[in-house]
Amino acid sequence: MLESQGVTHMKPAIHPAYNDVRVHCACGNAFVTRSTHKGDISVEICSACHPFFTGKTKLMDTAGRVERFRRKYAKNAPATPETAKK
């Protein structure tokens, strides 16, 4: 019936094998998924350690830039009520 409507079947033996693969993250998490990739997959970040999924923000200080920013703008910070009384 489908062939009469112009729909044909997929060609056999042209699609890659879809196998179970194990994914290893740098955080130590490992899980199994399916992929056409052969062998295990190693990733640097996964859903168990990515800040978007965990809700935790990680502040990565590259070459002291964050600390330098804090020192630079600490002088311009508004006075707290305790320091204003003195």
What would your notes on this structure say?
The chain has 86 residues and is of the alpha+beta class. The protein has one domain: Rhinovirus 14, subunit 4, CATH 4.10.80.400. The chain has three helices and three strands. The protein has helices at 51-54, 65-74, 81-85; strands at 19-25, 30-35, 41-43. The chain has a three-stranded mixed beta sheet, with no helix packed on it. A hairpin with a 4-residue loop joins strand 1 (19-25) and strand 2. It is elongated and about 85 Å long.
The DSSP helix count reads 3
Count of individual beta strands: 3
Alpha-carbon Rg, integer: 27 Å
What structural class do the secondary elements suggest? alpha+beta
Mean pLDDT: 78
What is the total number of structural domains? 1
Helical fraction equals 10-25%
Q: Major sheet: size, sense and barrel closure?
A: 3 strands, mixed
CATH fold description: Rhinovirus 14, subunit 4
CATH class: Few Secondary Structures
- Taking pLDDT < 50 over at least 5 consecutive residues as the criterion, the unreliable ranges are none
One letter per element, helices H and strands E, the order comes to EEEHHH
Envelope shape: elongated
The CATH architecture would be: Irregular
Widest beta sheet: strand line-up: 2-1-3
Topology of this protein?
Elements: E1 19-25, E2 30-35, E3 41-43, H1 51-54, H2 65-74, H3 81-85
Features:
86 residues; alpha+beta; Rhinovirus 14, subunit 4; three-stranded mixed β-sheet; 3 helices; 3 strands
In short:
The protein has 86 residues and is α+β, with helices and mostly antiparallel strands. It has helices at residues 51-54, 65-74, 81-85; strands at residues 19-25, 30-35, 41-43.
